[in-house]
Amino acid sequence: MRKTSDWTALLLVCAAGCLSAQVTDTIRINGSGSAMSMLKPLAEAYQHTNRQVEVAVGKPLGSSGALKALLAGAIDIAVSSKPLTAEDSAKGARLFAYGKTPLALVAERDVPATDLSSAQLVDIFAGRMTRWGQGPPVRLVLRPEGDIDTQILRAISPVMNQAVSHAQVRPGMLVAVTDPEATALISRTPGGFGVSGLASVLGDGFPLKLLTLNGVAPTTAALANGTYPLAKDIHVVITGRTTPATMAFIAFIYSKPGRALAQKAGVWVTATAPPAVAP
Q1: Cα–Cα distance, 208 to 231 (Å, whole number)
Q2: What are the distances in angstroms from CA 6 to CA 1, 13, 20, 53, 110?
Q3: What would the pLDDT profile of 6-43 be if each residue is shown by its tens digit?
Q4: Which domains occur in the chain, in start order?
Q5: Which residue among 21, 22, 70, 170 has the highest number of C-beta atoms inside a 10 angstrom radius?
Q6: What's CA 69's distance to the chain center, in Å?
Q7: Is 183 exposed, middle or buried (0-12, 13-18, 19+ CB in 10 A)?
Q8: Distance of CA 65 to the CA centre of its chain
Q9: What is the pLDDT of residues 254-267, one digit of tens each?
């Protein structure tokens, strides 16, 4: 006859096996830092009511890295801030609009400034504004030349484009590859300043100060009414290999509950319906 402790151990093993067996589908997602920050609460909510599904939200690879991973079959969904190239489309990538997050001006929390004008933003990148008034030196955190954030800044105006070019070649500059890396680096750098998608600022939890631009705060409402000018697109990208389980999760993020969670996470959802394309 088995001892009571033996039966208890056996039951625990069986329970663990039953729980693990409940997960029948794993959905792997990666993409831009802001989009990944938005997706974390969406993944948690979906798994709460779909316990047979695991939504694996990895460390952000960035838009380009995630697209490569998607086309290689390493992930199931890419969330990208960039449009597809002709080569991506030829390889089977399918892009669908989802929403936009404000590209926010962010500073280390002890920076005394609360607002920047367009002219001051130019001066920071051009190296003419080097100190926060009577406060600490300005420590600008750049993004790589090919990053979408850099492209958005360049598109503000010809003078801003020129200022960004000056900053990109100035020696000793701090550079962050993804939004989470940028928010982390800015937060720990005295006088730190840079840009990041609002979704990353809200979701990553680093102590930062959001600055207004010409008096306008980087909110989803300001994006929607056209008063805040800087925005990062968020696209959902899939391929012909997309599984029914993956399509069900995509339908959730486009649904009313999913849209509400995305809005809370700092994304203005512009799409009204999930992709009407069979995988």
Answers
A1: 19
A2: 10, 11, 21, 32, 59
A3: 544 444 444 444 444 476 899 999 999 999 999 999 99
A4: 9-100+232-269 (3.40.190.10), 102-231 (3.40.190.10)
A5: 70
A6: 17
A7: buried
A8: 13
A9: 999 999 999 999 99
